[in-house]
Amino acid sequence: xxxxxxxxxxxxxxxxxxxxxxxxxxxxxxxxxxxxxxxxxxxxxxxxxxxxxxxxxxxxxxxxxxxxxxxxxxxxxxxxxxxxxxxxxxxxxxxxxxxxxxxxxxxxxxxxxxxxxxxxxxxxxxxxxxxxxxxxxxxxxxxxxxxxxxxxxxxxxxxxxxxxxxxxxxxxxxxxxxxxxxxxxxxxxxxxxxxxxxxxxxxxxxxxxxxxxxxxxxxxxxxxxxxxxxxxxxxxxxxxxx
Length: 242
Known about the structure:
It is a single chain. By secondary structure, the chain is mainly α. The chain has helices at about 25-30, 40-45, 45-70, 80-105, 110-135, 140-160, 185-200, 225-230; strands spanning about 175-180, 240. The longest helix is centred in the middle third of the chain and has 27 residues, at about 80-105. The model is unreliable at about 5-20 (pLDDT under 50). InterPro entries: CDP-alcohol_PTase-I, CDP-diaglyc--ser_O-PTrfase, CDP-diaglyc--ser_O-PTrfase_fun, CDP-OH_P_trans, CDP-OH_PTrfase_TM_dom, CDP_ALCOHOL_P_TRANSF_CS.
C-alpha cells in the first residue's frame, strides 16, 4: 500500500512545496545516474527508503520462518508463530516510511517502487508461504495461492500507475484506494494465527479437503485467498484513505 506519492506528481499544500521542488528527489536522481561510485545507490536512499527496506526484511524473514517450520517438527509452532508475527511488523514499517517521508519532505519515484515491492513480499508472498506451511499444499491450492499473489502484484502496479490521476485531498494525498489495499491480507494472517492456536493445521485444517485422491483435490479454506485477491483488483471498491 504505497503512501509515498512522488512530490513531482502533486503539489503539497501542507508544506507549500510546488511540484518538482523536492531537492532530495533531484539529488537522488543525480546519484542514481552516476556512472561511477560503488555506493552511489546506498547514498541515494532516503531515511524513508531505509524504513521501507525494513518492511521488506520483515516479509523475507516471514517467508524464511515458514520454510523453517516446513523443515522442522510440525508440533513445534515457534517458527510458524514467527512467520505470522513478522507480518504486522512489516505493516508498522509500511506505515512509518510514509510518515517519515512527509516529515522530512522527501519523496521519490524510487521510494514509491520500493514501497510496492516490499508490500508484495510482506503482504502477498509471506501470507501465501504461511498458508503453504500450514498445509494448504495441493496443486489446486498452489494455483489459488499463486492467483492471490498475482492479484497483489497487479493491485500494486495499478496503484503506481494511477496514483497521479486519482482525486486528491487538500494535502495532495489520494482520497481513496481502488480495491482493498494489500495490507488487508493481514486479516487472513490473523485467521491463520487462530488456526495455529487451536491446532487446526495440516490434516486438521478447517473445512477439510475436497475431492481427496483426485487431481482436483483442494482445501476450500484456500478460497479465502482467492476472495482477497479479487477484492484487491476490484475497480468498483473504493476504500477511503485514513
